[in-house]
Every structure is written in structure tokens, then in C-alpha cells.
Amino acid sequence: MKKGILLVLLFLVFSCKIRRGEDGNTSQNIKNQTANFKASHTDSVYLFTSFREPADEGLYLAYSNDGYNWENLAGPYLKPTVGKSKIMRDPSVTKGKDSTYHMVWTTDWRGGKGFGYASTTDFISWSEPRMIPVMDHEPDVVNVWAPELFYDKDLGRFIILWASTIPFQFEKGEEEEKNNHRMYFTTTKDFKDFTKTELFIDAGFSMIDCVIVKRDTEDYVLVLKDNTRPNRNLKVAFASNPLGTYKNISEPFTGFLTEGPTVIQQDGKYIIYYDNYGDKSFGAVETENFKEFKNISDKIELPEGHKHGTITRISNKVLNGLIAKSKELK
Prior knowledge:
Layout: H1 2-19, H2 27-40, E1 44-50, E2 60-64, E3 71-72, E4 89-95, E5 101-106, E6 115-120, E7 130-132, E8 145-152, E9 157-164, E10 182-188, E11 198-201, E12 207-216, E13 219-226, E14 233-239, E15 259-266, E16 269-276, E17 281-287, E18 294-295, E19 311-315, H3 316-329
Antiparallel strand pairs: 1-2, 1-19, 2-3, 4-5, 5-6, 6-7, 8-9, 9-10, 10-11, 12-13, 13-14, 15-16, 16-17, 17-18
Family: Belongs to the glycosyl hydrolase 43 family.
Keywords: Glycosidase, Hydrolase
Organism: Zunongwangia endophytica
């Protein structure tokens, strides 16, 4: 009898090891996470932030019930008023432990030393936009591009990443000195006090558009753009801490001239949306382990002109308010 029980236990352990991938996650874990996510979000939908070229009008929005098909919500909902250029590109939104959504965005193509910030609870009424001068201490900085928000629930802080070029600061490589980007970060708990700006990652090449994805405890993925001239595509790297060190940078999983990734969990898999700016369209891939990627661009539908943004969740109450406002803006 004891021998039989021991054999059963050994079989169960062996089965778990078979299901477990090299990255430490299992397909069943992802399915369980998705099921729990859906159960806790029955009264919510996806919201995709966006902008329209030439980026001088402000924030645009789209929503989706299924994570694949997106309905336009008109716009703009927040006009760009800060920065030298008065533009809004790459709006990144996330929510912390309360009902407030925080948004950061690119304010200048060149010459800016910070990014824009505003907050809202309904995407209609906003706090007064202001600049966060994260690179004010760098007199030669060329730009501050594509700030990206990540809420670190474990420590109750927001991590903000962005790309900047400081000429002659790093090995030149393939890029001109004014296009040799590295990723920087700061953290904050209240968007009033910020930690000192620090280098986030230097992988030896020009990099922009980084997105942190938490899969599990001590299991993080960084989706990044290799911005070197021959590449300009998306890759991934891995770490046990949201601030890195990120290692094992992958081969590209998208084609030439792609950027602006944002990631959701859906149907037991991760979907990575990206701006296919070479073809002036949006694309998407799905993956279970961030090692194999399947192109599902033919399964998604986005409003015409949609550009680089992020996806979050909003309640149906907030959505109803946006639908009503959208009718006024049309």
C-alpha cells in the first residue's frame, strides 16, 4: 500500500516537471491566472490609449470587450499643454491601488528634459498636466522618449522607464551620437516625490520602448525595441526583479520597423500589441512563454490612425461615461 502511494506521488511530481517550462511558468499557471483575472474583472473592459499624427491634438482612446476587436472612442480627451513642442506621443496609463489612473507621455521629439504627467478617475476630467523633469540634470540630453509606467504592487510604487540619448556617454556602436539611446528610470509612490534618475539597462546597443511584464513572483519579462538601424524590431529579456538585471535578450519576434509594445493576458496566453509603423498598421503576437511567438495580426482590429499607447482596464461605468462623451466629440 505504501509503495503504491509513493508511486502515485512520484508520478504527480514528474507530471508537474513535464508541464513546467524552462522559464519556470506552466501553461496551467497562465490559465489559472487568466481565469482569476476574468473572475475579478467581470464589470470591466479593456481601454487602449493612443494618439494621432502629428501628435498635436492629444489623447485618443479605444475600448474592447474581448481584447481583439477595438471600438473608437473619438477624442481628444486631454490636449497637450506642457513641453516645448506641445505634443502628446506614446501615452502610457496604469492604475495603482486606488481608482486613480496615472498617465505619462512624450512631450518633445527633441530638446525635452522630461515627460508629461496627469491623472484621472474617468478619462474625462483630468488633473492639471505638468512636466516631470527627470533629465534636467543632464545638460546635453537629446530627448526623453516614450515614458512607460509599471505599478510594482509588492512595494506600492510606480516605476517609470524612458529612453534618452546623451552624446558620447556610451560606446557608439552602429548609431550616431544623437541617436544612441539607453533606458533610464525613476520611481514614485505619489507622483510628487521621485527617486534619483538612474540607468535602467545598457545592453550595448540603442534601445527604446521598454515594457515590464510580471509573470510571477521573481519572474519578470522586459519587452524592448532594438533601435539600431539594421534591426528596429522587438525582443524580450528576463529578470527576477522588475528593475533587473535583465538578461538573455532574445532574437527579434517582429519584423523591421516595429515598436511601441503593450501586453495583456487573454485566453490563457499573452498578447503583445505593437505599432507596425513601417506599414502604418498595428500588429500583434501571442505567446505562452515569451520564447515562441505566433503572429495574430489578422485577428485584431483597431481604429484607423491608432498609434503607440498602452492597454489598461476600466469599469463599465467609466466606459459608459466615455461613450457619452465620445458622441459629443464626434
